[in-house]
C-alpha cells in the first residue's frame, strides 16, 4: 500500500507539473510601426527587441498566427541561400521570425517579408518557443511599416534667383553711381554743365 501511495503521489506531482507547464503561454507581438517586438510568458513581459520587417513591396503580413515549424539552421533558397538561423515559420508562404547578421538595419523595414532579429535574440526566442511548445505560442503582427521619406519631400527647393530692377539714377547698363561720383560737384563751365548762378552774381 505504501508503494501504491508513493506512486500515486508521484503521478499527481507529474500531472501538476505538466499542467503548470501547459499554462506557460508565449505571446510574441511585433509592431511594424515602431519596428519592435515584445515577448511575454503567461502575461509577464520577458523580452523587448528591435526588429526589421518587410521593406516596400515585401510587406510582412498582419494578423494572428501560430508557429508551423522550427528550423535551427535554415538557408533561404529564394534569396541566394541567405542564412536564416533559428527560424520560427508562421505562414505557408514562408514568412518566419529569424536571426540576421544585418543588425545595422534593425529598427527599420529591410527584409523581404520576414521578421529579423539579432542572432542572439533569435536564439533566445527559438529556445523559448521550443521549450514551451508551438501550440502554446501565439504570434501577433500589427501596425504598418513606417514610410520612408521620398526624395521630393527631403530635397529642399532651391531659392529662385531674383534680379533687382535698376533703380532711378542708374545708367542703361544698370551700374549704380559710386558715392564719390554722386557727391562730386559738377564743373562750372561747358555746354553740358548746369548753370553756375554764383558766377553770374560775381559778374554783376
Please provide a written account of the structure:
The chain contains 5 helices and 11 strands; from the N terminus they run αββββββββββαβααα. With 204 residues, it is α+β, with helices and mostly antiparallel strands. It has a domain at 23-148: L,D-transpeptidase catalytic domain-like, CATH 2.40.440.10. The strands form 3 sheets. The chain has a 5-stranded mixed β-sheet, covered by helices on one side. Strands 5-8-9-10 form a 4-stranded mixed β-sheet, covered by helices on one side. It is globular, with a radius of gyration of 40 Å.
**Tally of helical runs:** 5
> Stretches where pLDDT falls below 50 for ≥5 residues?
150-157, 188-193, 199-204
How many beta-strand segments?
11
CATH superfamily of the domain at 23-148: L,D-transpeptidase catalytic domain-like
How is the main sheet built? 5 strands, mixed
Shape: globular
Give the helices and strands as they follow along the chain: HEEEEEEEEEEHEHHH
- Amino-to-carboxy terminus distance: 157 Å
Largest beta sheet: what is the strand line-up?
3-2-1-11-4
CATH level 1 name of the domain at 23-148: Mainly Beta
Q: What is the second-level CATH architecture of the domain at 23-148?
A: Beta Barrel
Relative strand content = 15-25%
Radius of gyration: 40 Å
Give helix % range.
25-40%
The structure class reads alpha+beta
Q: Looking at the chains present, what oligomeric state does this protein adopt? A: single chain
Q: Could you report the average pLDDT, rounded to the nearest whole number?
A: 76
CATH topology of the domain at 23-148: L,D-transpeptidase catalytic domain-like
